[in-house]
From TrEMBL:
InterPro entries, alphabetized: BsaA
Name assigned to this protein: Alternate signal-mediated exported protein
Amino acid sequence: MNQKEKRQHLFRVFLKSKLLFACFSLALSLLLIVGSTYAWITSADERVNRANANHKTLSAMIEEDFNRVYDWAPGVTKTKKIKVTNNGEIPTIVRLSLTEFFVSFEVDTSDNHRLDANPQNNLNGNGNLKIFDSFTTLIDVKRTETWVVGNTYEVNSNTYYKANTALIDQSYVYGGARTLPLSAFKLNFTANKVFDTPAATSGKDNYWYYEDGYFYYSEILQPKESTTDLMESVSLNAGYANQYKGALYKLVPEMEAHDLSKDLIADWGINPASDHAYNLYKDKLAK
């Protein structure tokens, strides 16, 4: 191979190498571009999913209008309105239960004069509560777990009453038999809006139906809607006995809310075979 042929060979090799390098570079660039674009799209999808996650909340709240009374007196009636408002973002079904708390204090019987052998004839004494100048565990009117027999209620720094009767977590039974002292408290429900027999609900709407410890609201609550008031007031019987003078009484409503899924039947323990609550909701739940 002469000198001229060598130069031509080298030139051809150079051209081939340059072309291969150019192709390689182009291919590499395309891979980098595609890779970067794929990575960007994936990342963007993840961000969009987080930003657009649409978890609508189920939420409801009890609303009360209550003139609080700590020291009840015979004949007192106080407003106790209870309703539920859907403050969430989806339709909901609600039910309520009521729990009572009571504590009374020792009465001074030092001036009793027994007229016969039956001590029940003279239980009331002078009708004033017995005063103690020292305390044990104090009763907090806002914390019912402190409403315990033997605990003391502070009237002032040197005057205390001692609890002699305490009833805690007493589930209210609509239309059920009540005994003293709770029978002295009358819960005044909203007229013609609370029922416990299916026949009484015929032609009615926006009512409460009582069954097995719960008041079920008849309608689906849309967001921002409220129920009818369950109650209007609480009264203390005018013939309330002296031995319960100055007692503390508290009525606590508890609410449950559920979406419109058929899980409501099992979650709330409703019996399709016997409970009217099932007939109340069966056509309102999601198919």
